[in-house]
Amino acid sequence: MIYIKRTTIFALLGSLALGLGISCEQAPKVLPTKELAPDEKVLLDSSDNTEILSAFRSLTKGKKRVNRPARAIKGVRWSDVPKAVAAACGENGVEMAVVETITQDWGYTFIIKTVEDKPAQLIVRRLDNDQVYQASATVGRFHDDQERADKLLAVFAQKMKAFGNKRGFEDE
Fold first, then answer.
1. pLDDT tens track, the chain, 172 positions
2. What is the C-alpha separation between 43 and 20, in angstroms, rounded?
């Protein structure tokens, strides 16, 4: 047995209907048997539970099931690349800022500036295998700061794994 306000039930059903894009005409008809004060509580029995469950089920008829958010299957997700680059650039020891993001058919090119105003570039290519991406970086006007480029790549890889561990939706 569950104690719940009937107004709460109607609010939940209404919110679900709106979220699924269902009009008022399509919404299930669940009416209280008696008028209740807004703060009055009611004891639900098994028939009420059945009625509520059937109302929720009727809202989902004809709708496509959506997978729940989960950790990345391959450890990293392609959709996390821009977030991981921004997070990596702000990390202590990297201290860079993304100036421009160029989206290509094959991936991304990130134009970056270091805190010392050196130009940098991070290129991330999408791969169709378990690796998901391949990244390369250059730092300095003459690409002469390889230590800093390696640090950016290492922190970017850490951030990609960290975002992959968070619950999210897989790329299509």
1. 455 555 555 566 556 555 555 555 555 555 455 667 777 777 777 887 888 888 888 887 887 777 778 888 899 999 999 999 999 999 998 999 999 999 999 999 999 999 999 999 999 999 999 899 999 999 999 999 999 999 999 999 999 999 999 988 877 5
2. 28
Count of the separate structural domains present in the chain: 2
Q: CA-CA distance, 116 to 140, in Å (whole number)? A: 10
Chain centre to alpha carbon of residue 103: 20
In this prediction the pTM is 0.64
Contact status, residue 144 vs residue 46, Cβ threshold 8 Å = no
Residue 20 within any structural domain of the chain: yes
Query: Has residue 37 been placed in a domain?
Result: yes
How many Cα atoms sit within 13 Å of 163 on the Cβ side? 21
- Asked if residue 49 belongs to a domain, the reply is yes
H helix runs in the chain, sequence order: 6-19, 46-60, 81-89, 146-165
Q: What are phi and psi of 137, to 5 degrees?
A: -140, 150
Q: Tell me the C-alpha distance between 17 and 11, whole Å.
A: 10
Residue 151 and residue 82 in one domain: yes
Domain with 22 in it: 2-60
Instruction: Mark whether 86 and 141 lie in a shared domain.
Output: yes
Is there a single domain that holds both residue 53 and residue 83?
no
